[in-house]
Amino acid sequence: MISALIFLQVQSVRNRLGARFRRLKNPKYLIGGIIGALYLAWYISLLAHPGTGPTTSGLTAADPLLAENLGALLLLVAMLLMGWVFPNERAALAFSEAEINFLFPAPITRRELINYKLIRRQIAILFSVFFLTLIWGRWRNGGHVWISALGWWTILSTLDLHMLAASFVRSMLFDRGITNLRRRIIIFVILGATIGGVCVWSWDQWPNLPPGAGFNETIDWLKQVLSTGASPYVLYPFRLVVRPYFSPDAISFLHAFAPALAILAAHYLVVIRANVAFEEASVEYSQKLATRVAAALDRRVPGGVAPRKAKRAPFTLAPVGLPSIAFLWKNLILAGNFFSGRMFFRIAIFMVIWSSVVFSGEHTHSPGASIIGFICIAFLFMSVLIGQNMLRFDFRADLNMAEQLLSYPLPGWQIVLGEILAPLVTLAAVQWLLILGAALFIQSPDASSPLTNDVRVSMAITAAILIPAIDLIMLIIPNAVAVVFPSWVRFDKNAPRGIENFGQNIILVLGQLVVMAVALVPAGLVFALVAFLANFAVAMTIALPLAALAAAAMLVGEGTFAIRLLGKAFERFDLSSEITN
Amino acid sequence: MIEIAGLTKLYGDFVAVSDLSFAVRPGEVLGLVGPNGAGKTTTLRCLAGIIPPTRGSIAINGADLLLDPRSAKGQLAFFPDEPKLFDYLTVWQHLIFIARIYQVTDYATRGEQLLTELELADKRDALPAELSRGMKQKLAIACGLLHSPTAMYFDEPLTGLDPLGIRKMKDSIVRRGREGGAIILSSHLLHLVEEICTHLLILKGGKMIAYGSLAEIKQRFASESGASLEDMFFRATTDAPASPPILPQ
Asked: Which among A70, A160, A186, B90 could disulfide-bond with A310, CB atoms 3.0 to 4.6 Å apart, if both were Cys?
């Protein structure tokens, strides 16, 4: 029977790969595939030639024993948290809905089903091993890549089987009336007792960590703590699992591999012999997963999680007026699951009160407050660069509703404008908070500093005017891609994935950068010109906001033109050709 | 009134719909039938302005859908077989949104009426995820009817409805027709078509096989008196003679 299951797996992989290769006949996928393959080849060549890739410092284990102990400790923590503390669910093997429909009613034993899932999980593990070896392999084990690969495989396979075994044990505990809370209490009691026992046993043998110890002293102390007293005994089984990875040569690897394999085999036996009913939980899990995946791929809801509670409308929508506002209203309701006007207002009030407290009385400068201010500036820059990719409640969320949108009696530009408004408003609100934070918390260290109150206020107003206009351009770009190249945006279940999609993403990112640069150049020139000229008539603190107004007007003009063009493109949007492609 | 002349839709070299010309007058319910892949849904999507036809013209009460889409779309409603709703809007929020899109000033009164008629009044604050398949269908219909369209397209309107829902849906379509709506209904359920349609258009391979009133079609394709629409459909769409249906003992 297992041969039929292996056949299913092999054929699925073959057919999937076949479909990918056939799709390369289409030029847009071929170009994406070539770019993706070239990028991967370039990256691999960087990794393969020492000195050209990322720095190796800190990655080479100067102390193999410490590395092994730290690896064992990490594995222990991972198994404890991921297998025993965090999970709430019963044992559930992730089957697809098709697998459940075909395999569960078939005359297949539970053991065969588990073996089938383990084989499938091995494929994912082997992929992980490939990438981890690619990234870390050449710096370890004297260049023995195969040692790295087998070492990673041992660690990941053991971890995977341990998680599965833990889920089976959790199910058995559930059946005996032990709830998640009770289980966690028991685990923490055992953990506390173990740590206490280790401390009591080892206290005399452990060195003291001197106050104000530096990095090297701390590492030395950690090394002693992990290798003396009771710690080595507690970590021993975990060290056996990670030891093959840290083996410096083939001989020591072979010595280390046998016990690690024995632990892996013991886990396998526990999993395969466990008499735990996982079918019901698997069905439930698979349905949930299918719903989440469908919603995420449909881009109906960011993150793929449909809201459970209705959200209040952000404002009263009148039945007459610019229809684009209806899209703003609708998408703000969607965003309301994550952001709300009330939340922004509360944060702003909190920031004002906080800064008043910090700078009250004699305090005119606080290094801690300045750090907050600089963090605000850093987030502000990040929000300009990647904010449009984080707030996707626009065309990217609504593209699967294109059939509905196209049936509305609206000119295309109104739909485009409406779709862009909600992320624009939300992003601008976040950025205004960050500007407020920067303006409030970055104070002049002394009276001679050029960062006077006037300068701070001027810069804040300049940023508050200019940045939303830049956001408009930044948001139009991905929405334009969604409308003009919808097949490059993943919005249905059959959308492409793989190296060609990866290549398409690279092209899109580069394209976005080029368009952004081109769009910002005229506005930048206008800003410089107006600031220069206005400075003859007024102070620079006034000239800067004036220049920002002019530049923002330029950007809004560009944006309006782009929205009109996109509207025309959306009116010609041929859903049928996208479906058939 | 819906007037279609020379409607053609090509996907590359594939002809999905070929040179369709017909009209649906106020009060008429046209049944659009045909085997799978006949081009029914493509035709409806073209008529709703969702996909552009390759050739031909479509007019809704005189407004050309291609030249004056806003005016034409403002008078029609398309009900797809799978109701597409916004996951995060409640039932009532859907109506508010649609009211702004179609500029329906009396949406509150009309919305209440529709929700009552469609038995959704107690679900006005529910999200689509909290609605059954039939309720979702009803909400899509409420959204479509909010602006009082005079041209309506139903694509497989009975999919997923329970017997009571089916009865109400049939009554609703018939009533909209009697109230002067021009209705096109696409369905595989021939008994539904026979029951509520006044006219019939049979498609096969994107081409019109037959078009006329139900009586005219019967006269043309019925080999014997009392022949059902199913018999006529098989006669019209298959080359081989249809085998007689197997009836329960």
From this structure: B90
Q: Which residue has the higher pLDDT, A577 or B67?
A: B67
Instruction: List, edge to edge, every strand of the sheet that includes B2-11.
Output: B14-24, B2-11, B55-60, B63-64
| Edge-to-edge order in the sheet of strand B199-204 | B76-79, B151-155, B182-186, B29-33, B199-204, B207-213
Residues in chain A whose Cβ is within 8 Å of chain B: 295, 300-301, 306-311, 313, 317-321, 323, 325-326, 329-330, 333-334, 337, 400-401, 403-404, 406-411, 571-572, 574-577, 580
Average pLDDT over residues A485-514: 66
Among the listed residues B177, B188, B184, B95, the one whose alpha carbon sits nearest the alpha carbon of residue B144: B95
Give me the mean pLDDT over the A105-122 stretch. Answer: 82
Mutate to test the interface with B, among A408, A421, A571 (most CBs of B within 10 A): A408
Would you say residue A205 has pLDDT above 60? yes
Ranking A474-488, A500-514, B190-204 by mean pLDDT, the lowest is A500-514
B66 interfaces chain A, CB cutoff of 8 Å: no
CATH number of B1-75+152-242: 3.40.50.300
Domain boundaries, chain B: 1-75+152-242, 82-148
Angle at B119 between CA B116 and CA B121, to 5 degrees: 55
Q: What are phi and psi of A66, to 5 degrees?
A: -65, -45
Question: B105, A320: Cβ pair inside 8 Å?
Answer: yes
Which one of B86, B131, B154 makes the best mutation probe of the A interface by having the most chain A beta carbons within 10 Å? Answer: B86
Question: What pLDDT score does A240 carry?
Answer: 93
Is the pLDDT assigned to residue A533 strictly greater than 90? yes
pTM: 0.71
- The C-alpha atoms of residue A408 and residue B76 are separated, in whole angstroms, by 9
DSSP code string of A342-370: HHHHHHHHHHHHHHHHHTSTT----HHHH
pLDDT score recorded for residue A142 = 58
The answer to whether the beta carbons of residues A316 and B97 sit under 8 Å apart is: no
Which residue in B has a C-alpha nearest to residue A401's C-alpha? B84
The ipTM of this complex is 0.85
Q: For residues A139 and B122, which has the higher predicted lDDT (pLDDT)? A: B122
Nearest CB partner across the interface for A410, out of B89, B97, B101: B101
B226: closest CA of chain A, how far (Å): 41
CA distance linking residue A497 with residue A32, whole number of Å: 11
Q: How many CA atoms lie within 13 A of A495 on its CB side?
A: 21
For residues B179 and B177, what is the distance between their CA atoms, to the nearest angstrom? 5
Residue pair A475/A388 in contact (Cβ under 8 Å)? The answer is yes
Neighbours of B149 (CB within 10 A): 21
Token readout for A223 is 């090394």
Which one, of A293, A281, A1, lies nearest residue A164 by Cα?
A281
d(CA A416, CA A394): 9
